[in-house]
Amino acid sequence: MTVSELSSQLKEGRERTGLQPILFIDYLQIMDVADTSASNDERIIVKEVLKRLRTIALKYNFPIFAVSTISRSFYNRSADLTALGSSAFIEYNADTVLHMCREKSDSEEDDGKRTILLSNIKNRYGDSERTTKLSYDARRATFTEVF
To answer: Residue 15 belongs to what H/E stretch?
Structure first.
């Protein structure tokens, strides 16, 4: 699906229901922009997708959550904005960047629960560099904050 197609669907849905949408994109790198799809450079495509998504979010005033890959060296440790690797344009366009990883000492128990660290590594409008500990229940696909 291209960003233009997505924009049309969001606009139609909002007009039909009267509700403000929230958009979740699972795996940003597979989004496409019709007029740059001939490019093989992922960085150019991601940059254009991000620019257009930000325009849509500001035009229609709703949040967009996009999941992105990170450099493999950050899979099981805390991250900073360099973890975005070739998708560094996310750093410039995103209002907030969150990173999730398993706690180092965490081992999956028989009950399917894992400890996840959710780190705020960028927040354009406030406090960043905060980490929250979450319990992830794989059987129920739910997160609970650990105090």
So the answer is: helix 3-17
Would you tell me how many other CB atoms lie within 10 Å of the CB of residue 73? 11
* pLDDT at residue 35, rounded to an integer: 60
Closest C-alpha to 49, from 30, 33, 73? 33
Average confidence (pLDDT) per 10 residues, the chain, 147 residues: 82 89 80 63 79 86 81 73 71 83 66 85 83 90 92
Strands (E), 1-147: 23-25, 64-66, 96-102, 113-123, 130-137, 142-145
Token pair listed for 85: 């690797």
Number of H helices, E strands in the chain: 3, 6
Token duo for residue 102: 């398993």
Both tokens of 9, joined, read 């669907």
Q: What pLDDT score was predicted for residue 87?
A: 64
What is the number of other CB atoms lying within 10 angstroms of the CB of residue 47? 19
